[in-house]
Write a structure and sequence with these properties.
mainly alpha; binds protoporphyrin IX containing FE
């Protein structure tokens, strides 16, 4: 037997011994194991069996599949973020590398949003959307987890209530004052709408657990605890600014324009499927969701979501705070 084979066998022996297993049994198992194929490994058949239309309109398929692609990318984002949130002795290089991966995924989501805005016939969309009420992308749980994983809870609280909330506020109270609760109110009666009632039935307890978990491990808190030399790394600061801007301005604007394209088509104004006061609610100027406020200048904060192009141009400038 070759020296290499001996080496591999002794490493296997050590591995199985550590978990009280007989190496020979595992080797015998290998004799009978099926060779792996692409379709088994990637689970293509399961994946391609998940697109179930509610109507006969072909463009509904575009809508379903693009949402599924988004959810897969959300999962990739959380996968990277969690490595920073749970990591120890994080270096600037590691933090920047993970942030740039996350940003690339979000860049992809922002630039591909034209698939929604231009990739469906308005007439078809306006028909199949009637079968989706009262559901909405608002009910994406992973999107909310990305927010909890990215920043301190105070930055996700509705501006009107920030003064009443601090680190000692119970999680449930903070939850009830998250900025997105505003879309969960029927804007004519002020009562919780079906969109949020259904969402909370399914996820509220899970969200409260996650809020607690990420309270001390979110990206912003991890960043703030880094040694000054790492914290002031221009590459890292720019990576954080890029991520913040991509999620909270670029993606939000792409989403807003897609909503506008359909809901205001033909000069008419349609209600959102989730029932929010969407025109006001979805605009970054109103929502002002900012993950890393300390990394922006006063001027940039003042103009959040206003001068989109100029803020992108300024992204690589060192922060002056
Ligand atoms: C034609 C395509 C789309 C339209 C017209 C649209 C419209 C809307 C509207 C009007 C809202 C506000 C809540 C409501 O009342 O429903 C909303 C929220 C939301 N949508 Fe979409 N959407 C589209 C595509 C997508 C896609 C592809 C995703 C990806 C998962 C998505 C994710 C979300 C999220 C996460 C929210 C909550 C945002 C927040 O709270 O700020 N949407 N959408």
């Amino acid at each position: 037997m070759s020296q290499k084979r001996d080496e591999i066998l002794s490493r296997m022996e050590a591995k199985f011994k550590a978990i009280d297993q007989d190496t020979d049994v595992h080797l015998e198992g290998l004799v009978w194991a099926k060779p792996i194929t692409y379709w088994d490994y990637i689970q293509t058949e399961a994946l391609l069996g998940l697109q179930i239309q509610r109507t006969t309109l072909p463009d509904e398929m575009v809508f379903i599949m693009y949402h599924q692609i988004n959810e897969l990318l959300f999962k990739m984002i959380l996968w990277e973020a969690d490595q920073v949130c749970t990591g120890e002795n994080i270096s600037a290089a590691f933090f920047s590398e993970k942030l740039m991966r996350i940003s690339r995924y979000f860049d992809m989501l922002s630039s591909s949003f034209s698939i929604m805005q231009h990739g469906m016939e308005i007439e078809q969309y306006m028909k199949f959307r009637n079968t989706l009420t009262p559901a909405s992308g608002f009910q994406s749980a992973q999107y909310r987890l990305i927010e909890f994983a990215s920043t301190e809870l105070i930055n996700l609280i509705d501006y009107r209530f920030r003064a009443t909330i601090d680190r000692n506020t119970p999680y449930e109270h903070a939850y009830n004052h998250l900025y997105w609760q505003a879309a969960g109110k029927d804007h004519s009666t002020g009562k919780k709408n079906t969109l949020i009632t259904n969402f909370e039935k399914k996820y509220k307890n899970f969200f409260i657990d996650k809020m607690e978990e990420y309270n001390t491990t979110n990206l912003y808190t991890v960043y703030k605890k880094l040694p000054d030399a790492v914290k002031n790394d221009v590459g890292l600061i720019n990576a954080m600014r890029h991520y913040d801007h991509t999620v909270n301005v670029r993606w939000v604007m792409a989403h807003y324009h897609a909503a506008e394209h359909y809901l205001e088509s033909g000069g008419k104004k349609a209600e959102a499927t989730g029932g929010s006061d969407w025109k006001k609610y979805m605009h970054p100027r109103y929502q002002r969701r900012i993950f890393f406020p300390d990394l922006w200048t006063e001027e940039e904060l003042k103009n959040w979501g206003v001068d989109n192009l100029e803020s992108i141009a300024k992204l690589s400038a060192p922060v002056k705070k």
